[in-house]
Design a protein that fits this description.
Layout lengths: L1 H8 L1 H15 L4 E3 L5 E3 L1 E4 L8 H14 L3 E3 L7 H13 L10 E6 L9 H12 L4 E6 L4 E2 L13 E2 L3 H13 L3 E7 L3 H8 L8 E5 L7 H10 L2 E5 L18 H10 L3 H11 L3 E4 L4 H8 L8 H8 L22 H5 L4
Length: 343
């Protein structure tokens, strides 16, 4: 009766209240990182090439906030930081969230800034584009340094130069101490490179964000990360179909199709649920509002042991090999040197 009475006088207030109740019911589980920060286990990716016009990206990300996403994954190289910052501002203005603190924002250091003297300026530039005082998580995008003048997407192995891992990580730690990054981590690091990093880290990486999906299980790497207290986040959870390096290995897989039909779930939901049951967090991208909603609906059901065993049989293949980082005169002379023995 109370809500009915309020609705007669102030319908917008009731609408906003009910919307917030619905969003609360769709809350995404969180993981406690080694840094002490909590991170939602499902995040919205923003990497797509070419990126739609900035105003369109902003509108898409506002939609994502509206349907319940609270973790957003960006990077300097994605050119999505400014649209994301504007989306957060708009979401606050519309009452979808109360403040920026309700969101978990990740961004990444691009390879041209992978140098001790360039890390802090790069993060400050990211924060300026986001319009924020801090990021929740800042990642070294690749264990690679590129020449400063290297083109963003058309670089080659000749642009790869030696990288000071120890000095760069010390600069990442300084970003953390300054409060500009609540947590720091890495992306696309092998077990061996993580081991090298841990030898001199005073703040260990909280996260290693890597390619992982039902067609690339990352068993060895996940085991190493678990042992060292490093949380694994999966990018390319659906195989990046549509990307220049992506494939149909996930979305066209007959085993996943069979399970999808049997459970009455979409194939994407099956793939995402499999990742969730492996104990990793997920960064998934869809700019379609209905699919955004669908991808959130993976937390109230389970895959059976038999279904998990079937997925274990899927042929394994790395989708993004990183061939552009390899050159006979560079730091990485083969893919084996880039990825070490993580297979």
């Amino acid at each position: 009766m109370f809500l009915q009475a309020v609705y007669m006088e102030r319908p917008f207030v009731v609408f906003t209240f009910l919307r917030q109740v619905l969003l609360t019911k769709m809350e995404i589980p969180e993981v406690l990182l080694s840094s002490g920060q909590k991170m939602p286990l499902l995040g919205m990716g923003t990497a797509t090439f070419p990126l739609p016009p900035p105003h369109q990206v902003t509108s898409i990300l506002v939609d994502a906030i509206e349907v319940g996403y609270r973790h957003f994954d960006s990077a300097a190289v994605y050119a999505s930081e400014e649209p994301l910052g504007r989306a957060v501002t708009e979401a606050i203005e519309r009452g979808l969230i109360k403040s920026r603190s309700e969101l978990f924002i990740t961004s990444k250091l691009w390879c041209t800034d992978n140098h001790p003297d360039l890390v802090l300026p790069a993060l400050k530039n990211t924060l300026q584009k986001l319009g924020m005082e801090y990021v929740d998580l800042y990642l070294v995008h690749w264990p690679v340094r590129l020449r400063k003048e290297a083109p963003i997407f058309e670089f080659s192995g000749e642009d790869v130069i030696p990288w000071d891992m120890k000095g760069t990580w010390a600069a990442m730690e300084e970003c953390c101490r300054l409060g500009l990054a609540r947590s720091i981590g890495v992306s696309n690091f092998s077990s061996k490179k993580l081991s090298q990093l841990l030898q001199h880290a005073t703040i260990p990486p909280a996260v290693n964000q890597v390619e992982m999906n039902p067609a690339w299980h990352q068993v060895k790497l996940r085991g190493f990360c678990k042992e060292k207290g490093i949380h694994v986040t999966a990018w390319s959870p659906l195989g990046a179909n549509g990307a220049f390096w992506g494939s149909l290995a996930v979305v066209d897989n007959p085993i996943l199709k069979e399970i999808s039909t049997a459970k009455g779930k979409s194939l994407a939901q099956v793939a995402l649920r499999w990742l969730h049951q492996q104990g990793v967090s997920i960064v998934v991208k869809s700019f379609n509002k209905e699919r955004m909603k669908e991808n959130l609906k993976i937390f109230d059901w389970e895959l059976t042991d038999n279904e998990l065993a079937k997925i274990k049989q899927i042929l394994q293949h790395r989708g993004c090999p990183g061939q552009s980082f390899v050159h006979h005169d560079g730091p990485y002379k083969s893919l084996e040197e880039l990825w070490d023995d993580d297979a």
